[in-house]
């Protein structure tokens, strides 16, 4: 009788363990910790000792860099300043391509060092030599000094010439890392915007805007990324710090595994 009970108990324990295992597997599959099928596409490898920017980065049109650009090779970040001219200037690089009809997620992290911003983060279907202004970007986010004079507002395109504000008064703080997901639906010419102030998986609570229309239709696969600005001050320590660009096919709202970018693996809990 004791042996029979022991066998039954063992079988129950095994079934429970198997059930628990399956539940864990399902949870892991449904809620991935990291951006899946990702490619980290900033390369902090010096092409030569005098390199200012990481490999494959360069002035947006080959001759008009921003007034202040600095690369922290130790921290693996790029610090971008302002541009007091009315002529837009910036830096750009190739990015993983998204072809017509595909859905993909572009991810990056940034910190605000100052509120004197008028900075575009954007993607274009044009090759690098064709990316010369915000009008050549299909998908963009604009960080601009708030009209209230407090912090930085976030704007997105409307499909017309104007822009729409989707968030107000982000506070400049070098210790805060904002995580940004732009989920591109090239078939429907729109994108979703997610933002949170710490690394981790994005949720519906982090959704700032859904189905934002492209500023400009795609003329081919998305292939270029650019940061550009105009008409803003030149803070001594820079305006915007950027790091950890990544790409994933489909809708990918997991956090980034920074170990792939050469940094410590971040907690996603």
SSE order and pairing:
Layout lengths: L1 H29 L7 E3 L17 E2 L9 E4 L4 E4 L8 E10 L4 E10 L5 E7 L14 E7 L6 E6 L5 E8 L7 E8 L4 E7 L10 E7 L8 E8 L10 E10 L20
Proportion of β residues? 35-45%
Poorly predicted ranges (pLDDT <50, ≥5 residues)? Answer: 1-31, 261-269
Radius of gyration based on Cα positions: 22 Å
The SSE string, one letter per element, is HEEEEEEEEEEEEEEE
Shape designation: globular
User: What is the CA-CA span between the terminal residues?
Assistant: 47 Å
Q: Which structural class do you get from the secondary structure elements?
A: mainly beta
The count of DSSP E runs of length 2 or more, i.e. the number of strands, is 15
Overall mean confidence score, pLDDT: 81
Helix tally equals 1
Helix content: 10-25%
Largest sheet data:
8 strands, antiparallel
Explain how this protein is built.
The protein is mainly beta. The chain is built from one helix and 15 strands; from the N terminus they run αβββββββββββββββ. Strands 1, 3, 4, 6, 11, 12, 13 and 15 form an eight-stranded antiparallel β-sheet that branches. A seven-stranded antiparallel β-sheet has the order 2-5-14-7-8-9-10, with no helix packed on it. β9 (152-157) and β10 (163-170) form a beta hairpin. The protein is globular, with a radius of gyration of 22 Å. The N and C termini lie far apart (47 Å).
